[in-house]
Amino acid sequence: MAKRCGLEVRLDPQLDLPFVVDPSVGVSRLGPGPCRLSLVLRGAVITNRRCNQACGFCDARRVSDDLREIQFDAVRGRIDGLLARGVREVVITGGEPTMRADLVQIVAHVRAGGAVAILDTNATLISEASARALAAAGLVLARVHLPGWGSEADAITRDDGGFAATRRGIRALVDAGVEIVAHVPVVAANLATLSGLLERLAAEEPALRRVLFVVPFAGPDATTVARLSDAVAALEEAARRGRELGLEVAVDPATPLAPCLFASASQAAELVTLSRVASPREGLGHTPACEGCVARGGCPGLPVGALARGEVVARAITSERVRRRLTMVGSLAEQIGRELVSIEQVRTITGELALCHTVRVNFQCNQACEFCFVSTHLPAAAEDDVRAAIVAAGRRGAVVAISGGEPTLNPGLVDYVALARRSGAREVELQTNATRLGAGDLAERLAAAGVDTALVSLHGATAETSDAMTRAPGTFVRTIAGLDQLARTEILTRVNFVATASNHHELPELVRLVAERWPAFIVTVSFVASHTDLVPRTTTLVARMTEVAPSLARALDLAEELGVRVTGFESMCGVPACFVPERHRGRALARALATEDSGEFVKDPACAGCAANGVCWGLRRGYAELHGTGEVAPFAVMPRV
């Protein structure tokens, strides 16, 4: 089978390059900023179809190649096509790519184009010299086909002596500094020996700590394919054993396993990941039982053949917490590592540009906002990792934003603030819902420890709306009390309002509330961002910009009248300036940041003629997929700031 790893996201639907394996393959990663996801798009290119092994379940292998398609110029052209579409991780796959004499040049071309090169291989043809050459050309990761151990592997691959050659190739790659992932198919021949395979890996290949399972649903030789129910049961047992051995185990997202196939949703969450919107897959379908499942939108479905044979039965998942747990980019440790720290460029209190490191000291939260992009189901990172992240940010002279989840749930919060200050942080910001600041002296202790600014979430001007948004009844009054306490300190406080389809009408009243109760506070307006798979991409949550614009206009008029400062337009979570009333645009652009192409944003062709094009982020890709880009209204003259 063509082997590849990554979380599925939808790429450009116009990707129609020949020999590209499933161009919807990609990986989402939390990137810089408390409201930013840097989307790393992944594409796969088949360099050749021939393989020196002959697995009966492989649907990618061919006896011969079309010479026109495997010429270097043809392969280079396909890679260039992916790069032009924003792909930044290129999987070089086959067949067996190492059968090519020009593989080093292919890897080098990927690297020269600014992308990461990943190799799918059985490693049998890799020598010490070729491994060093591949590493020098830019290869960073190899996913090595490993269906068994010893003679069992040779029987499955139908390659006598292949296993020994694979191990030599693995050692050569490790010595050359290339990371290795074991790519293990779950097939009829190895159902009873998967756990033993992992035990041998743990004992004899200490450099190989990550395992990706793939489950073939069909193949040229149907006798080699396991019954799906048997495959999943064997997979669960092997994964349990792998975790006991300290291995990172997961299912390759190239295998579209529905979570209801597993014995429990919790076990599914340990192994599979879901996209927000699942790409249609040939041979997969849903049943009436799927309609009540909270994972329905991101579930690929069940193999129709297995359903027809009665091998599997669809079961609805009803827990929203489980849905969020299923929406991860990798293992638990990998997810924590990705979300612990994010970095962005911000403006400081004095208006200067600076880097901001957002450190999530825990992920747990006492509210449950539907639009939250943080994996609040995760356990906290290791204490040493949290402290190291804070120290590193401080030594860099960055703004340190201490965040969560809800950071006030962490008993070490005051110490973290003091650590950031001692380490040299330019500013220290607390990102909180303030529900735990209203009682006791925590606000005062945080101010004394060194908090300069607070960003407080308040998503409604009334308890009815706010508590509905946070799905935490009674917390509106507690946030108000926390803001009252912050007003008694020297902490500069911003009240952050995330505008959604359900609450944007209360933005003007929020401005009035701030003016009357905390006149020194700043209102920050954010727009709900369906930019991670945790956030539902629905019109009931994500309103059109043009629907929110009237509420924003009334809020800005009222803010001007009452003397309230409104910010947030310079942020990636803000509203593009063309949706801001013309008379307020100067203020909206006053703190505008230079933009960069991260793959997260898109612009309408009309934006090219806009005076603010160079400092406008544009529309998030998720928003454009939901609503299109036709609402933008470019303006020819930059407003006076």
From the 3D structure, determine the CATH topology of the largest domain.
TIM Barrel
Low-confidence runs (pLDDT<50, min 5 residues)? 1-39
Helix content: 25-40%
Largest sheet: 9 strands, mixed
- Rounded mean pLDDT is 87
How would you classify the helix and strand content by structural class?
alpha/beta
Count the helices. How many?
21
Give the CATH superfamily of the largest domain: Aldolase class I
Helix and strand topology:
Elements (H helix, E strand, L loop, with lengths): L19 E2 L5 E4 L6 E10 L20 H4 L1 H13 L2 E7 L9 H10 L3 E6 L6 H10 L1 E7 L5 H7 L4 H14 L3 E7 L8 H11 L5 E5 L13 H17 L3 E4 L13 H7 L12 E2 L16 E2 H5 L11 H7 L5 H9 E7 L5 E8 L22 H13 L3 E5 L9 H10 L5 E5 L9 H8 L3 E5 L5 H8 L4 H13 L4 E8 L7 H11 L4 E6 L17 H18 L2 E3 L17 H4 L12 E2 L16 E2 H7 L14
Parallel strand pairs: 3-4, 4-5, 5-6, 6-7, 7-8, 8-9, 13-14, 14-15, 15-16, 16-17, 17-18, 18-19
Antiparallel strand pairs: 1-3, 2-3, 10-11, 12-13, 20-21
